[in-house]
Amino acid sequence: MKRTIINIDEEKCIGCSLCINACEQGAIQLVDGKARLISEDYCDGLGKCLPKCPVDAIQLEEREAKAFDKEASLQRKAASEAPTSPAAASLGCGCPGTASKTISRNDAPASQPQQSYNPSQLRQWPVQIKLVPVHAPYLENSHLLVAADCTAFAYGNIHQEFMRNKVTLIGCPKLDEGDYSEKLTAILQNNNIKSLTVLRMEVPCCSGIANAAKNALINSGKMIPWNIVTISTDGEILED
Fold first, then answer.
1. What ranges in the chain are assigned the alpha helix state H?
2. What are the boundaries of each domain within the chain?
3. In this structure, are residues 153 and 128 in contact, taking their beta carbons and an 8 Å threshold?
4. H or E stretch including 6?
5. SS3 label, residue 187
6. Which of 37, 69, 73, 150 fits 41 for a cystine, CB–CB 3.0-4.6 Å?
7. pLDDT of the residue at 91
8. Please, how many CA atoms are within 13 Å of residue 102, restricted to the half-sphere of its CB?
9. CATH architecture of the domain with residue range 2-90
10. Which has more pLDDT, 104 or 84?
């Protein structure tokens, strides 16, 4: 039968998972870091996922497709929201960023000498990207760190290695509404930013914060030193 259904451009997709959260039918899944329509009969064709995509990678089109099966789609949605094992995630069944795992570490001593602790390197407040004023005085002539929320908990020495002598902005592209590109563009355009460091996790949805920073640099028209550092879920630096 011919009906309206979504089409996902995988070339544009950044793997942010916002469309997956928006789909009430469980019709979209993250596979190899890209959103994919897993079955035509799960898609109701209403397009609630479209406005959530920050890169316009989803369109509605009229074409030959299976009829919408509401009961099957709801069953799929319930299954997709169930806890996902690491093995299942590795097979593409659910977002790998939500896969549960235990990280083995040696127990830290209950108390340590005071001099072994490093002081906080946070230089400003607030830190959330959406709350930071574009014209905040601390942004002028600053080195900017844009970090995904989870990096502060995954990487133990984040204050000394990344936050020191930088203004820190944090966010989560999977949980926050909208895209950070516009806000970061305004910050770059209205302040003399000396450098930009992006600190992200290895999970696919975290590519959203890196892409927002890249787009902001392009849109601002400024050429400044910048780099992206990726942290693994067990706290190791993967790329620098």
1. 18-22, 70-80, 86-90, 151-154, 158, 181-190, 207-220
2. 2-90, 119-239
3. no
4. strand 2-8
5. helix
6. 69
7. 38
8. 3
9. 2-Layer Sandwich (3.30)
10. 104
Chain segment 33-46, per-residue pLDDT in tens: 788 998 888 899 89
Tokens at 2, concatenated: 């011919």
Cβ 174 vs Cβ 16: under 8 Å: yes
Q: What is the 3-state secondary structure (H, E, C) of 78-120?
A: HHHCCCCCHHHHHCCCCCHHHCCCCCCCCCCCCCCCHHHCCCC
User: What fold characterizes domain 119-239?
Assistant: Rossmann fold (3.40.50)
Q: 85 is written with which tokens? A: 């094992």
φ/ψ region of 9 (left if φ > 0, alpha if ψ in -120 to 50, else beta) reads: beta
| Equal CATH topology for 2-90 and 119-239 | no
